[in-house]
Amino acid sequence: MTAVPARRARCPVCGKPSEAAFAPFCSRRCKDVDLHRWLAGGYAIPAVESDDDGDAGDGGSD
């Protein structure tokens, strides 16, 4: 049998092979670029807006 070489993950910023020291990125630069994108609002987690007034989880009136 022949050993299958391990596939290295690609950097999500530039596509180069990732480095263990900066995983999942390839360098400190790409790691910082990704952090800046998060802080600047470049990434967003989608949310579903509801029509109720936000009291849905209080369990009723007191």
Automatic annotation (TrEMBL):
Any coiled-coil regions, as ranges: none
Superkingdom of source: Bacteria
Cofactor note: Binds 1 zinc ion.
Required cofactor(s): Zn(2+)
GO biological process, one term: regulation of DNA-templated transcription
Record keywords: Metal-binding, Zinc
Gene3D superfamilies: Erythroid Transcription Factor GATA-1, subunit A
Pfam families (UniProt xref): YacG (PF03884)
Record-linked InterPro entries: DNA_gyrase_inhibitor_YacG (IPR005584), Znf_NHR/GATA (IPR013088)
Sites where the protein binds Zn(2+): C11, C14, C26, C30
Keyword set includes Endoplasmic reticulum: no
GO molecular-function terms, A-Z: DNA topoisomerase type II (double strand cut, ATP-hydrolyzing) inhibitor activity; zinc ion binding
Record-stated family: Belongs to the DNA gyrase inhibitor YacG family.
Task of the protein: Inhibits all the catalytic activities of DNA gyrase by preventing its interaction with DNA. Acts by binding directly to the C-terminal domain of GyrB, which probably disrupts DNA binding by the gyrase.
Oligomer status and interactors: Interacts with GyrB.
Classification via NCBIfam families: PRK01343.1 (NF002362)
Annotated protein name in UniProt: DNA gyrase inhibitor YacG
Source organism of the structure: Oharaeibacter diazotrophicus
Taxonomic placement: Bacteria, Pseudomonadati, Pseudomonadota, Alphaproteobacteria, Hyphomicrobiales
